[in-house]
Amino acid sequence: MSPQSSLYDFEPDLSPLTEAEREVFEAVGMGQYGPREYARETGRAPGTVGNLLRRAREKVEVTGA
Protein backbone atom coordinates (compact mmCIF):
# COMPACT_ATOMS: atom_id res chain seq x y z
CA MET A 1 0.00 0.00 0.00
CA SER A 2 1.45 3.40 -0.99
CA PRO A 3 1.16 6.48 1.22
CA GLN A 4 -1.67 8.87 0.51
CA SER A 5 -0.79 11.99 -1.48
CA SER A 6 -1.42 15.37 0.08
CA LEU A 7 -2.36 18.63 -1.63
CA TYR A 8 1.18 19.83 -0.94
CA ASP A 9 2.45 17.20 -3.40
CA PHE A 10 0.63 19.02 -6.21
CA GLU A 11 1.49 22.63 -5.36
CA PRO A 12 3.96 24.39 -7.68
CA ASP A 13 7.46 25.13 -6.40
CA LEU A 14 7.49 28.90 -5.87
CA SER A 15 11.03 29.07 -4.47
CA PRO A 16 12.64 30.48 -7.67
CA LEU A 17 10.25 33.46 -7.73
CA THR A 18 11.02 36.94 -6.45
CA GLU A 19 8.81 38.26 -3.67
CA ALA A 20 6.79 40.38 -6.15
CA GLU A 21 6.41 37.49 -8.61
CA ARG A 22 5.27 35.15 -5.83
CA GLU A 23 2.76 37.71 -4.54
CA VAL A 24 1.22 38.21 -8.00
CA PHE A 25 1.29 34.50 -8.84
CA GLU A 26 -0.54 33.61 -5.64
CA ALA A 27 -3.12 36.41 -5.96
CA VAL A 28 -3.76 36.35 -9.72
CA GLY A 29 -2.30 33.09 -11.02
CA MET A 30 -4.12 31.00 -8.47
CA GLY A 31 -7.44 32.73 -9.07
CA GLN A 32 -8.09 35.10 -6.18
CA TYR A 33 -8.00 38.29 -8.31
CA GLY A 34 -8.00 39.31 -11.94
CA PRO A 35 -4.88 41.17 -13.17
CA ARG A 36 -6.54 44.59 -13.43
CA GLU A 37 -8.34 44.22 -10.11
CA TYR A 38 -5.08 43.24 -8.40
CA ALA A 39 -3.27 46.16 -10.05
CA ARG A 40 -5.86 48.56 -8.60
CA GLU A 41 -5.66 46.92 -5.15
CA THR A 42 -1.86 47.21 -5.02
CA GLY A 43 -1.36 50.51 -6.87
CA ARG A 44 0.62 48.83 -9.64
CA ALA A 45 0.12 49.35 -13.35
CA PRO A 46 -1.79 46.52 -15.07
CA GLY A 47 1.19 45.97 -17.37
CA THR A 48 3.48 45.51 -14.38
CA VAL A 49 1.16 42.89 -12.89
CA GLY A 50 0.95 41.14 -16.26
CA ASN A 51 4.73 41.10 -16.65
CA LEU A 52 5.26 39.78 -13.12
CA LEU A 53 2.66 37.06 -13.70
CA ARG A 54 4.20 36.06 -17.04
CA ARG A 55 7.69 35.78 -15.55
CA ALA A 56 6.36 33.83 -12.57
CA ARG A 57 4.49 31.38 -14.80
CA GLU A 58 7.57 30.87 -16.95
CA LYS A 59 9.73 30.14 -13.89
CA VAL A 60 7.16 27.79 -12.34
CA GLU A 61 6.74 25.98 -15.68
CA VAL A 62 10.50 25.49 -16.05
CA THR A 63 10.97 24.17 -12.49
CA GLY A 64 7.82 22.04 -12.69
CA ALA A 65 8.84 20.28 -15.90
Short note summarizing the structure:
With 65 residues, the protein is mostly helical.
Give a description of the structure.
This protein is mainly α and 65 residues long. Helix content is 58%, strand content 0%. It has one domain (17-64). The chain has 3 helices and no strands. The chain is elongated. This is RNA polymerase sigma factor 70 region 4 type 2 domain-containing protein. One of its GO terms (biological process) is DNA-templated transcription initiation. Residues 17-59 form the RNA polymerase sigma factor 70 region 4 type domain.
Category from helices, strands and their pairing: mainly alpha
Helical content stands at 55-70%
Distance between the termini: 27 Å
Number of domains: 1
Q: Quote the beta fraction.
A: under 5%
Note poorly predicted spans.
none
Sequence-ordered SSE layout with sheet pairings:
Layout: H1 19-29, H2 35-42, H3 46-64
Helix pairs in contact: 1-3, 2-3
Question: Which features does this protein show?
Answer:
about 60 residues, mainly alpha, 3 helices, sigma factor activity, Sig_transdc_resp-reg_C-effctor, WH-like_DNA-bd_sf, RNA_pol_sigma70_r4_t2
